[in-house]
Amino acid sequence: MGFRRILLIRRDGIGDMLNTTPAIASLRLSYPDARIVVACSPPQADLLKHNPDVDETIALRGLNFVGKVRRLKPDLAVAAQNAYLCNLTAAFSGARIKLGWKGKRFSSLLSIRVPYRYVKGEVHEAQRNLDLIAEVCDRLAPLRLKLALREEERETGMQEIIRAGIDPRRPWCAIHPGGSSWDKLWPPDGFARIGERLSERYGMQVAIIFGPGEEGIAGEIASQMRIKPALIQPENVRRLAAVIAHVPLFICNDSGPMHIAAALEVPTLAIFGPTDHVRWRPLSEKAKVIRRDLGCFPCSAHKCRRGYECIKKLPVDLVWKGLEEMLEDENIGVELLTHR
User: Which residue among 105, 116, 140, 308 is least crowded, i.e. fewest CB within 10 A of its CB?
Assistant: First the structure.
């Protein structure tokens, strides 16, 4: 079956969209002459700029999506997010073929409904997206996230790093302490202790990268450190990506910026709590996941009865051990400690 106009829909987080880029690349491989349009949240649309697999993005705000998607007159609409609003958007698009997951509200309006049979701890999110798109694609792209940055964007990111006080000719690392929900956040004092150790034992400069609404946690970490970290607050998600692209060692929670680092192949230590580390781990050979297994995984994640001990009481020494393993890795550590 051939498609000339393809609409893909999802409106959740930046990490969710990055983990959909292999599926979008599969659409491009299978239908090289099609016009591929992605309807998504504004930050997601920003991340897809300059992606060679995407011809256009539509930033969805509120419920004003019906007219926009109908004007596209797509042949294929893909509700990539397992959510009722995406199913409804696909239905309203008027597409001949409407593909999505079976089960959520309005999935009955789809023409191809794929059973969502995954259990926790088994399949990565990017692979789940590929499984969905395989229903209409005869060629599948590799499991590799895609985020395209232009050279001028990278230069702007480096300028922001230097303005913050980091000398990029010397070893340095960056901490991103934020996340989409409280249950994903390692306590600030843990990040403070890790930053101090990297400075004292390896001579690393330390930067704290944070976004809107994360000023408090960034300031709390800085106030608890015996050294003075650089503070970097990029103004938007593409500027954030341009900064992360230069980071020699990125330390973070399970978050959207973690997936940005994975897409850019930045060495990353990712701290996980109750969320599914198999499904959401950073998809990069340069990434390492640190977590505390209390024997209750897979769990209800956002409804923990144990006070989120796995993340809130995650020992500093466990995180430090993971960092030392990365620094001893001949493919990563030498580059970090001799960074020029």
Answer: 105
